[in-house]
Write a structure and sequence with these properties.
Number of helices of chain B: 12
Order of helices and strands of chain A: EEEHEHEHEHEHEHEHHEHH
Strand content of chain A: 5-15%
Largest sheet of chain A: 8 strands, parallel
CATH architecture of chain A: Alpha-Beta Barrel
Radius of gyration of chain B: 24 Å
CATH topology of chain A: TIM Barrel
Number of strands of chain B: 15
Largest sheet of chain B: 6 strands, mixed
Strand order of the largest sheet of chain A: 9-8-7-6-5-4-3-10
Helix content of chain A: 40-55%
Order of helices and strands of chain B: HHHEHEHEEHEEEHHEHEHEEEHEEHE
CATH topology of the largest domain in chain B: D-Maltodextrin-Binding Protein, domain 2
Number of domains of chain B: 4
Shape of chain B: flat
Oligomer: heterodimer
Radius of gyration of chain A: 18 Å
Low-confidence stretches of chain B: none
Shape of chain A: globular
Structural class of chain A: alpha/beta
CATH class of chain A: Alpha Beta
Largest interface: A-B, 10 and 10 residues
Mean pLDDT of chain A: 93
CATH superfamily of chain A: Aldolase class I
Number of helices of chain A: 10
Number of domains of chain A: 1
Number of strands of chain A: 10
Low-confidence stretches of chain A: 274-281
Structural class of chain B: alpha/beta
Mean pLDDT of chain B: 92
Helix content of chain B: 40-55%
Strand content of chain B: 25-35%
């Protein structure tokens, strides 16, 4: 990995990225919200519910990369306006995905964090375009990408002049079919060895099963992740996309409580240098 | 055409008729400023003769006479109310119109094409007041207005500071990504310079923000956008692509109220205009006078004289009132050191 001039960890100096009241790389940032923005009522309702439950940031797709061209493609500009309204109502900043180079500057006008989805991880024109904006980029790992390929994509963004890259492990394809993907938690400490960039996990897409999201969230804290992104819908049964993997606000509240407890344990543990040293050996 | 289509066209025509009624009443009010007595039987008969001559089998002359008799009666009633007419530059939906309403709800805002028309109209008595923008928190001075202030015989009788939030507007149903050029007043374009640059949009100056909105609706150009107020978007049926595109959230413009009479009453702010003699330290001598009297200057504006480009005219705003002996002493001293000295007015300053 000699070509990672900007992404490589040097002298143990780590990048922190502050968005709203939360900082990636300092503490644990929880991003939550629906898969897609469906309408103002659903988005604002979910935003208020996840804020109440203790989320730091909102998520919601306005442009959706769907397997089928006949599936709901997202509300586009209208969706961005609704997300801005949800931010105003809840006081939480939001992250949203961009699919098309022509949309990058416009999405950046509305969003606090621009997401590059797993399917677009190696869309190099898109990476160069988000490298030119002045908003943090959440770069998801491609579902069949090595760590080196992933980190090279972060290098593309930084090379264009945008130093604010947050990595997100969201599961890779394996021979297992019980789970939607295999959440590669070993990627978290591995990235921490290789790069100074913050890394979070996506246990929703990483497992595709509601019952596995809670335990894998706790495991993410244990693995040293800087945060997580999780799908929450006010009424999952009515969701226009990903209805089988969205948490209810109640399930999410219980997840946040346990994750925060786990994180404070991690923080105390990290405060003891001898223990940290022993752990590494 | 099916029934819903016909009905939608009728609704559109009704909106146009109401818009024309607004315009007609505006002109009637302006005509009222030109005559002593409201009733002018000869003119009313001429209007009725003129419109009934345009009758047809469908729109009969009796019907036209009924409609226009009612219109004339309403115009006359409006003229008798002796409403205060306030001139502003631009079209309905312009930020200057918002400023007019900040001065009082009983004000009728009348659009003018240029800033010069606002000044001239108030000077000639066609309007009771004028409202013009003087300076903006992002873009600084409105040069044309400051030049006119240096020359005018009018008084400044008040001021307001209006928060300005610009919107990018486009035709409904158009793709915002196809927008290449954005039309608006040069001040609005300048206040959104960073936004335009980030999105690779070419700024194109237009005489007014709301006027640009009307133009876009009329032209139907899908590759054009407009920067204007939310009110202008509503008036002209345009879609708001993005709200609050100004380069700083604290964007605000200071407007002054122009009048033929001084404000009177208790005031706490003053504007003076003068030209200095062309010698070393001329401006410094004047500024020192204010400093010595401990008077707080809130703005200094210098403009090259349009009549003699070697000379500079200055506009000075400061806090203080007429009865203050320090203010009177300072003004006497300044008067003796300057040419063309003029007090533009004592008025109540805006709270922010």
């Amino acid at each position: 990995m000699t070509n990672l001039k900007l992404v490589r960890l040097q002298n143990n100096v780590r990048t922190t990225i502050t968005v709203g009241g939360a900082t990636f790389g300092d503490g644990f940032v929880i991003i939550a919200g629906p898969c897609s923005v469906e309408n103002a009522d659903q988005m604002i309702g979910t935003a208020m519910a996840v804020k109440e439950a203790g989320a730091d940031m909102l998520r919601g797709g306005a442009f959706k990369p769907r397997t089928s061209p006949y599936a709901f493609q997202g509300l586009g500009l209208q969706g961005l306006k609704i997300l801005a309204k949800a931010r105003e109502a809840s006081g939480l900043p939001f992250a949203t995905e961009v699919l098309d180079t022509r949309d990058v500057s416009w999405v950046a006008e509305f969003a606090d964090v621009i997401q590059i989805g797993a399917r677009n991880m190696q869309n190099f024109s898109l990476l160069k375009e988000v490298g030119k904006i002045r908003k943090p980029v959440l770069l998801k790992r491609g579902m069949h990408s090595t760590l080196e390929e992933w980190l090279n994509c972060a290098e593309y963004i930084m090379n264009e002049g945008n130093p604010q890259v947050i990595l997100c492990e969201r599961g890779i394809r394996s021979f297992e079919t019980y789970t939607r993907n295999t959440l590669d938690l070993s990627a978290v400490p591995a990235v921490k060895e290789l790069s100074h960039l913050p890394v979070i996990t996506d246990p929703t897409h990483g497992t595709g099963r509601v019952s596995l999201i809670h335990p894998m969230s706790l495991a993410s804290v244990a693995a040293g992740a800087d945060g997580l992104i999780v799908e929450v819908h006010r009424n999952p049964a009515e969701a226009l996309s990903d209805k089988d993997q969205a948490l209810t606000p109640r399930q999410f509240a219980s997840l946040v409580a346990d994750v925060r407890a786990m994180e404070s344990f991690r923080r105390e543990h990290a405060a003891e240098p001898a223990a940290a040293e022993g752990g590494r050996a | 055409m099916n029934l819903p289509e016909i009905r939608s066209r009728i609704d559109h025509l009704d909106a146009q008729i109401v818009g024309l009624l607004h315009q007609r009443m505006e002109y009637a009010l302006q005509a009222g400023k030109h005559k002593e007595i409201v009733l002018d039987a000869g003119r009313e008969e001429a209007i009725l003769r003129n419109v009934t001559s345009m009758s047809s089998a469908m729109v009969e002359s009796g019907f036209l006479r009924t409609v226009f008799t009612a219109l004339i009666a309403e115009s006359r009633a409006l003229q008798e109310k002796r409403l205060r007419l306030v001139a502003f530059q631009g079209e309905h939906g312009a930020w200057s119109e918002t400023a007019v309403h900040e001065f009082g709800s009983a004000m009728v805002a009348i659009p003018c094409f240029e800033f010069g028309d606002v000044f001239a109209g108030v000077e000639k008595g066609e309007f009771d007041f004028g409202v013009v923008p003087v300076e903006n928190s992002i873009e600084g001075s409105v040069n044309e207005v400051n030049d006119l202030l240096l020359e005018t015989s009018l008084q400044i009788a008040g001021e307001v500071v209006v928060p300005i939030h610009h919107n990018l507007l486009a035709l409904p149903g158009s793709d915002h990504r196809e927008i290449r050029a954005v039309y608006s007043h040069p001040q609005a374009l300048a206040q959104c310079r960073a936004f335009l640059s980030r999105n690779r949009l070419e700024p194109r100056p237009f005489y007014d923000t709301a006027g640009a909105a009307r133009w876009l609706r009329h032209e139907g150009q899908k590759t054009a956008g407009v920067i204007a107020s939310g009110l202008a978007a509503a008036i002209h049926g345009l879609e708001i692509v993005k709200e609050r595109i100004e380069d700083h959230p604290d964007n605000a413009t200071r407007f002054v109220l122009l009048s033929r009479e001084p404000a009177g009453g208790t005031t706490d702010k003053c504007t003076v205009a003068f030209t200095t003699r062309n010698r070393v330290g001329a401006l410094l001598d004047i500024l020192r006078i204010f400093a010595e009297q401990k008077i707080n200057l809130t703005r200094i504006e210098s403009r090259p004289s349009r009549k003699d480009p070697g000379l500079f005219g200055f506009l000075l705003d400061f806090t203080g009132h007429t009865d203050d002996p320090a203010v009177a002493a300072a003004l006497d001293n300044v008067r003796s050191l300057t040419v063309r000295f003029k007090i533009l007015g004592f008025y109540t300053g805006a709270s922010r």
